């Protein structure tokens, strides 16, 4: 497995080895020992995964920027198994030197990349094709009481979303009306 470091040390991209021939392909989509080794070598905390989630999105669906506060903060290992998405993680740890910075990566059913997003980051993605299927391994259970969102187009982040001309974004009211980073900070709805 190839591990790619990003501009934010806590966010990693994993590229599994894919063995392909004329019959198709095989890959080890997750290996706990390899995952732990990659994080430990970089001085990062090793999580325990306890829940898997699967979402299906049409082209133009934008989900995010979502996170859960303590005591149910979630780390996520995410990948696309069909279709194509632009995936983004934003550092919302107030005392972090990279607070407010983001990393984006294209995840597709063909590139097999996985994105590790630890607790303390807001997460979102836009589906760039119809029938985009997204898998998440999470480090805590879903908790409605701890769930929060920051608006996807907050100017403080200036995320470079790859939105094609004429593409109609599809968002829930929850995502469209989410708090700004400034509001989340003022309401103590981020990580210290």
Automatic annotation (TrEMBL):
Looking at the UniProt entry, the stretches that span the membrane are none
Name of this chain's protein: dTDP-4-dehydrorhamnose 3,5-epimerase
List the InterPro entries hit by this protein, alphabetically.
Answer: RmlC-like, RmlC-like_jellyroll, RmlC_Cupin_sf
Q: What's the stated role of this polypeptide?
A: Catalyzes the epimerization of the C3' and C5'positions of dTDP-6-deoxy-D-xylo-4-hexulose, forming dTDP-6-deoxy-L-lyxo-4-hexulose.
Q: Which UniProt keywords apply?
A: Isomerase
Q: Name one GO molecular function term.
A: dTDP-4-dehydrorhamnose 3,5-epimerase activity
**In this chain's numbering, which residues are marked as the site (Participates in a stacking interaction with the thymidine ring of dTDP-4-oxo-6-deoxyglucose)?**
142
Record the organism. Acinetobacter populi
Q: What is its EC number?
A: 5.1.3.13
Similarity comment: Belongs to the dTDP-4-dehydrorhamnose 3,5-epimerase family.
Assembly and interaction partners: Homodimer.
Which Gene3D superfamilies does this UniProt record tie to the protein?
A: Jelly Rolls
